[in-house]
Amino acid sequence: MQEWEKKLIGEIAKVTSSKRIFLSDYVEEGVPFWRSKEVIEQYHGKNVSTELFIAFDKYEEIKNKFGVPRPGDILLTSVGTIGVPYLVRNESPFYFKDGNLTWIKDIHSEAEPYYIYLWLSSDIGQKEIQNNLIGSSQKALTIDSLKKIKIVLPPLPTQQKIASILSAYDDLIENNLKRIKLLEEMAQITYEEWFVRMRFPGYESVPIETTGLPEGWEVKAISTICDVNKTSISTRNTPEKIRYIDISSAETGSYSAPLEMAFSEAPSRARRRLAFGDTIFSTVRPNRR
């Protein structure tokens, strides 16, 4: 029976990035252009919320000279929310931003791409990624650091069996996420119908006041019904470890996996303590809930 072994990612694949795309290269329509945000959304089964494009001619030029992502390649977020993987499938052509994403390509025949994707997603893989970050205030995963990460690599048939079993669960999760998305869309439609168009159940019999609101309704400052930014971590009673949610992690209705770190290593802005039922939203960069 073959033994499981550890190999450097740089030994079983080529680790690189994309060619530089400038702001002047963006166009209104063309080939989708992804950053970390788009990969994170794809990882969580969501549609891309903000679409960027480059021209088809630009894409073809890059494809012919340097290559583009192909099925079986893996992209990995390398700044902000670090370590979110994306396995390229048979989707439409796209390209991606250098620096934001690292590209694992030309994976050797001894390794199953889906197994590598699963390992990177696992707690063990995520811990290895966190242990190989550089920088103090702004963490990053470099190409060289990713090359040196050791991955547990069983014999290929075992990798393929693991991938086959877990891909079935992934398909089930994907289908459930699609159902959840439909329910969220229905909830949004209901909200707009009730509280924007004011067609809530029984609205026909409710008088409308001069304020434009139904009788009995009122407008209040949010600070009168809840606390805003008041629950902070006391400097006299700080935890050893925290789970930190960066602004890039916040998405509409949810957030991606928080980063676990020692409180002493956390950014100075990591001072708000969250509790069940709290709401967070970004106030700079994309203003998302």
Question: Would you write up a description of this structure?
Answer:
This protein is of the alpha+beta class. It contains seven helices and 14 strands. The protein has a four-stranded antiparallel β-sheet with strand order 2-9-6-7, sandwiched between helices. The longest helix has 40 residues. The chain starts with a strand and ends in a 27-residue tail after the last strand. The mean pLDDT is 86.
List the helices and strands and how they pair.
Blueprint lengths: L4 E4 H4 L1 E3 L9 E2 L3 E4 L1 H8 L9 E2 L1 H10 L8 E4 L7 E3 L7 E2 L4 E5 L7 H9 L1 H9 L11 H5 L2 E4 L2 H40 L45 E4 L5 E2 L2 E2 L3 E4 L27
Parallel strand pairs: 4-8
Antiparallel strand pairs: 1-10, 2-9, 3-5, 4-5, 6-7, 6-9, 11-14, 12-13
Short description:
With 289 residues, this protein is of the alpha+beta class. The protein contains 7 helices and 14 strands.
